[in-house]
Design brief:
single chain, 122 residues, mainly alpha, 5 helices, 0% strand, transmembrane helix, membrane, transmembrane
């Protein structure tokens, strides 16, 4: 069994590798691709980067946590953590809905007659 300090170190290592290195590289790759990605995919990745930064914000502190000057950093970290959970949940839901609707073809699209009627009305 891992001690609590080892668990924190593993958690921060995963946050750094995924959210501070991996996802920003993926976002940069999206910007330099010739074929553009959906904005939903980019927004999903950006929200997870913000989530990662908010959970590892205390790692960047220069003063001990017991000092009075670190209270602002603790409050900022707490506020970002509470907001990031909701943001990543909603961006994941949006990403999954976008994926679902892009895979699922509407029934009117398959039938030629109804597809012409729908495209004409739009």
């Amino acid at each position: 069994m891992l001690s609590p300090s080892q668990q924190v170190q593993i958690f921060l290592a995963i946050q750094l590798l995924g959210g501070h290195i991996g996802l920003p590289l993926l976002i940069i790759t999206f910007f330099f691709m010739k074929k553009s990605r959906s904005i939903v995919v980019t927004q999903f990745c950006v929200s997870w980067v913000i989530f990662s930064v908010s959970f590892s914000l205390l790692m960047y502190r220069t003063t001990p946590l017991k000092a009075e000057s670190s209270q602002g950093l603790c409050l900022l970290s707490e506020a970002m953590t509470n907001g990031a959970v909701v943001m990543t949940s909603l961006s994941t839901l949006t990403f999954l809905l976008n994926l679902w609707f892009s895979i699922l073809r509407p029934s009117w699209y398959v039938n030629e007659d109804s597809r012409h009627n729908v495209e004409f009305s739009v």
